[in-house]
Amino acid sequence: MAMTRVRPGRALFKTRRPAGVQAPDRDTAVIDWAAYIDGHRACTDTVADAVRLIRDGRLTPDGESAGFVWVGLHEPSATELADLAEVFGLHPLAVEDAIHAHQRPKLERYDDVHFVVMKTVGYVSSGPGGAEVVETGEIMLFCGPDFVVTVRHGAHGELGPVRRDLEKDPARLALGPAAVLHAVADRVVDGYVGVADAVMEDIDEVEEAVFSPERTDESRRIYRLKREVIQLKRAVGPLAGPLRNLSGRRFVPAEIKEYLRDVEDHLTRVREQVESYDELLNPILQAHMTQVTVADNRDMRKISAWGAIFMVPTAIAGIYGMNFDFMPETRWRYGYPMILVVIAMACMSLYRGFRRNGWL
């Protein structure tokens, strides 16, 4: 790939902020940058200086740069990415995807630049109504011969810890941009594992609540969990293909391929775990709906039984309330007490019958 010279004065290449400090007014999307030579960080005042240091510095016997530049961005604007695209020769289609986000996990190649999209997930325990929510974001990587550009969308999946861990291992970082690619993929998959475990705890709680003696309505929570599982599946499932393809790319050193296969193995386990959640939630939902139906039928039986019991005094009172002249019982001295006894015995007989049959 022909190296593009850096033009000074670009909006993206501003003076460095202190490490770990992000300007409150979000004047730039650049979170951190550095040049890495033989696995060691070389700090510069601007991104442009880092690019010059690598491209104008020592070359390998093959004529390639002996190091690389790593630029990290968070939700950049079109202008900021356009600056980087001009410097690193990024394809317009990949740049457009990185700006708008909402992409499926994928791996694409544009000349000697690989564009990787990964979905990130985060578990938030303070969603609407105090509910647990699985949030998704994205991380895009542009991997070239002498640079890595990471573009992050969403509030989670921070890559600062990834950079710090890699800088503690210069030998691994000296393997080039592929080392960054593996570290980011490993971080993303570890996030899947943590969220999947949290969702599993929620499923266990719902299952315990459904089969507890107390009568609770868990249908809402079950449907919400099913929606969160779908979110997880959309993030986890499609990433298997890109990881598998990365293991066969020539720009990935053999040492990194071994690490990528380990990440792929972790991803497979998480994918199987997430897919099993549907198999768990479906019978839980069916059992809950069955319990609701049984409880409703039980309530209807009780209502019907009490209705039948109260129908007896109502019917008798209705008959004697018609005030016919030729009703002998109305002239009888013990007629009123006798009717009360008949009503009480009839109601008691019905009550005992319904109790014996389990209706009351």
TrEMBL record:
Membrane topology: Multi-pass membrane protein
Location of this chain's protein in the cell: Cell membrane
Top-rank lineage group of the source organism: Bacteria
Catalytic reaction(s) noted: Mg(2+)(in) = Mg(2+)(out)
Gene Ontology CC annotations of this record: plasma membrane
Sequence intervals crossing the membrane: 303-322, 334-354
Annotated signal peptide: none
Chief localization: membrane
Keywords on record: Cell membrane, Ion transport, Magnesium, Membrane, Transmembrane, Transmembrane helix, Transport
Family under the similarity heading: Belongs to the CorA metal ion transporter (MIT) (TC 1.A.35) family.
Function statement: Mediates influx of magnesium ions. Alternates between open and closed states. Activated by low cytoplasmic Mg(2+) levels. Inactive when cytoplasmic Mg(2+) levels are high.
Protein name: Magnesium and cobalt transport protein CorA
Lineage: Bacteria, Bacillati, Actinomycetota, Actinomycetes, Streptosporangiales
